[in-house]
């Protein structure tokens, strides 16, 4: 851990577990910028800052060598991105800070479980104006830096998709000039992590945006990363060979979705047909493997209309463990 990094964390109040029992993790009397003053002025943000500092210190205290250096560098980068991204009026800054603290604290808690997986946060922030359109881009994606496998292909894929989505959310000159009135376009992307087993990290990338039109767009894409191979694994690689897992999942998912439809959340009846469910459940982007359960995430339009928003189905691992492949990324849960 370099002296420069230690100094940077100390300046942000995150270098040591020596904070007050109330207020922010740093000395509010010495708050030197808008971000710090906003945190100090709002008890809920001060609490979030203090909680994050405690979680960070607990994790840092368990690490040494390359793992600790990686964590420190990632935290410094997170602080820099926080300060750059959270701009605007007081309410906008507060909302931005709240979202970032919740996400970062959750990620650090996941990183604390088991062997440190060397996952860092990459960010892309852009603002500008083209014609009548003001645009704002705030994108984050995971990067796997660990020594257990070659993650280069996986990381380039995450980066490529993030940058492509950001580029598509910036209007060209024609679109900016043809806008019927002054507009604000935006694209935001964040991610959360889960650690379902020692061999795997689950990633859920959530995105939202508006680029003109009647309403915005959004969704979630999930991945299960095998730390032994450096690759994202589809459900066919998580479960044992054959279709036993599909035969088990289809009735569980159908029953849960039908219950949601019957309770007043409109859905597409044909989505419950066996052939359609089988096709849907072969798609890896729906599978978010949490600590103790599988969460299946279906974006708007997948099993229901836009007005219904996303649907989720949760299945405890107690119903799935016998179906996991013994040599797969979740085999240790059997």
List its salient traits.
9 strands; alpha+beta; 40% helix; disordered N terminus; Heat Shock Protein 90; three-stranded antiparallel sheet; six-stranded mixed sheet; 334 residues; 3 domains; Actin, Chain A, domain 4; single chain
Number of distinct helices? 10
Quote the beta fraction: 15-25%
Strand order of the largest sheet: 1-2-3-4-5-6
How large is the radius of gyration? 22 Å
The helix-strand sequence is: HHHHHEEHHEEEEHHHEEE
For the biggest sheet, the summary is: 6 strands, mixed
Can you tell me the overall shape? Answer: globular
Show unreliable segments: 1-6, 11-20
Residues in helices, as a percent range: 40-55%
Beta strands, count: 9
The domain tally reads: 3
Output the structural class: alpha+beta
The pLDDT mean sits at: 91
Account of the protein in words:
With 334 residues, this protein is of the alpha+beta class. The protein has three domains: 1-116, no CATH class; 119-230, 2-Layer Sandwich (Heat Shock Protein 90); 236-333, Actin, Chain A, domain 4, CATH 3.90.640. Helix content is 40%, strand content 23%. A hairpin with a 6-residue loop joins strand 4 (200-210) and strand 5 (217-226).
């Amino acid at each position: 851990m370099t002296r420069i990094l230690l100094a940077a964390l100390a300046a942000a109040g995150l270098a040591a577990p020596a904070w007050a029992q109330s207020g922010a993790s740093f000395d509010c009397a010495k708050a030197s910028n808008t971000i710090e003053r906003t945190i100090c002025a709002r008890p809920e943000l001060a609490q979030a800052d203090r909680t994050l500092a405690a979680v960070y210190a607990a994790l840092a205290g368990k690490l040494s060598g390359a793992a600790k250096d990686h964590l420190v560098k990632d935290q410094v980068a997170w602080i820099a991105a926080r300060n750059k991204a959270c701009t605007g009026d007081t309410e906008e800054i507060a909302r931005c800070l709240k979202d970032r603290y919740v996400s970062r604290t959750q990620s650090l808690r996941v990183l604390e479980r088991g062997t440190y997986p060397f996952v860092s946060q990459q960010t892309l922030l852009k603002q500008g104006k083209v014609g009548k359109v003001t645009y704002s881009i705030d994108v984050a994606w995971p990067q796997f830096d660990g020594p257990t496998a070659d993650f280069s292909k996986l990381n380039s894929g995450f980066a490529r998709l993030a940058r492509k989505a950001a580029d598509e959310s910036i209007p060209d000159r024609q679109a900016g000039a043809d806008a019927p009135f002054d507009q604000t376009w935006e694209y935001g992307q964040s991610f959360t992590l889960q650690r379902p087993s020692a061999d795997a990290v689950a990633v859920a990338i959530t995105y939202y945006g508006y680029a003109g039109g009647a309403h915005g767009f959004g969704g979630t894409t999930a991945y299960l990363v095998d730390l032994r191979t450096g690759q994202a694994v589809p459900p066919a690689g998580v479960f044992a060979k054959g279709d036993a897992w599909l035969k088990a999942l289809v009735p569980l998912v159908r029953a849960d979705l039908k219950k949601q439809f019957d309770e007043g959340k409109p859905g597409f009846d044909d989505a419950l047909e066996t052939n359609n469910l089988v096709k849907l459940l072969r798609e890896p982007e729906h599978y978010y493997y949490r600590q103790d359960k599988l969460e299946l995430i279906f974006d708007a339009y997948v099993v229901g209309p836009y007005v219904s928003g996303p649907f989720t189905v949760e299945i405890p691992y107690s119903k799935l463990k016998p179906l996991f492949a013994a040599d797969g990324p979740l085999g240790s849960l059997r």
